[in-house]
Design a protein that fits this description.
alpha/beta; Signal recognition particle alu RNA binding heterodimer, srp9/1; globular; 8 strands; four-stranded mixed β-sheet; 2 domains; 40% strand; single chain; 4 helices; 2,3-Dihydroxybiphenyl 1,2-Dioxygenase, domain 1
Length: 131
Amino acid sequence: MRGMMQKLSPVLFVDSIEAALPFFRERLGFTVGVSVPLREGAAELGFVILSRDAVEIMLQTHASVRLDVPAVADQPSRAFLFLEVEDIEAIVAAVRGVEVVVPRRKTFYGADEIGVRAPGGHVLLFAQMDR
């Protein structure tokens, strides 16, 4: 296969970007790089690009998907993201009070992990690897 893949940026569908932003910005420290209104002149957001360190996540509302790519708008969409982190204790503190779907555990592959449900029903599994 020719060429190299350069980057992966998941797009997570959510009901409301405004409702999802506190989770990503305040709890996890992401910043908004790009924000696009649902429609021209609208106050409601339809799409954002969030980044922190080497991680980029895009959020798009279901309403925006219906306008942009109607063929996939009503299909189920849930993601399970595996994020390696330097400090699992900081993550545990940041997600306190969020629904835990994978209780903190040590794995056979050398990870200290915890998984939580993010806005939109997506699962974020945070892992600090033994080095």
